[in-house]
Amino acid sequence: MCLSSGGYQELSEASPRQAAGEAVDPIALEPVDEVRVTTLVDNVYDALLIGDDRTSRTSFGVARAAAAQFEGGSTAVGLVAEHGFSALVTVRRGSTTTTLLFDTGMSPTAMVTNAERLGLDLSGIQGVVLSHGHFDHAGGLAGLVGKKGARSLPMVVHPEIWTRRRLAVPGLEPEEMPTLSKRALDGEGFTVIERRQPSLLVEGCVLITGEVDRTTEFERGAPPIHQAWSGQEWRHDPLIVDDQALVVHVRGRGLVVVTGCGHAGVINIVRHAQRLTRVPSLHALLGGMHLNGPAFEPIIDDTALELVAMAPDLVVAGHCTGWRAQHALAAALPAAWTAGSSGSTFHLTAA
After folding, report:
1. CB 221: neighbour CB atoms within 10 A?
2. I want to staple 266 with a disulfide (CB 3.0 to 4.6 A). Which of 27, 88, 199, 262 is the partner?
3. Which InterPro entries is this protein grouped with (predicted)?
């Protein structure tokens, strides 16, 4: 969920703190030979984007739909874009290939519709990871239910993902967000795995960060309009502690970091992944970076400067990054920045 109200002064009241729980440091993240990240859902679908040697795009005509006003009774259709994020992450190490679903978009239909139009069989995924509990990352679970194999899928989440949250914009009636139900997911047969600490999946080839250390001076979290229910009252929820990312180490290249919204701060997230894995190089950063709106636009320049110092080879800033941050990142990292879009696949291989 993206937040655009509130000021930076209010935002800065949330001071950094270390993640709770025992530190797991370092983590032996096994390097992989290949990783493919396919964006199933993003805020944008651009059928005119051009691919390159590492990026595949989806153009018009990926599927057809009935339309009586055209000769032949049908027309070409593209993909669905909505305020949400979902990606398929496929890793290959040697002859072993595994695909995970990272987030599921906002609506029950967008993710599965796009997967069908792309010819991707979601019954082949071997696990689900939710970056956090906001509904624009978990809504597509409803569409996944009923797919072959879904009932036995493991699902990795942070234990605070069930937190009730709302937006309390001054002058407006507070609006409570849809809250994930653990009972419902258990009832659908998902094997829900709750972890605050980092998790290694796919025989040690995929890291789920768990709760992220907040170490930067400028990434301070959500403004006061973002609130959580404590059990007794609504309180400012700046940290959104359930925010976590997916990390892969591409052999000879460095880390590939996939974020949902990046509520922990994308620089915090990358630093956290580097600390856990002791892999210093950032090869690629993909996903939402939450730099949209007046509460977050003041930290765009700091974020861009830190990313320039990290020198990634690929930056795909999608979902809640915002157009101002997109422009700033494209200017700061012209060789690395690549536009995101529903249906894009980013193919990264070992050196």
Report:
1. 27
2. 262
3. DHPS-like_MBL-fold (IPR041712), Metallo-B-lactamas (IPR001279), Metallo-beta-lactamase_dom (IPR052926), RibonucZ/Hydroxyglut_hydro (IPR036866)
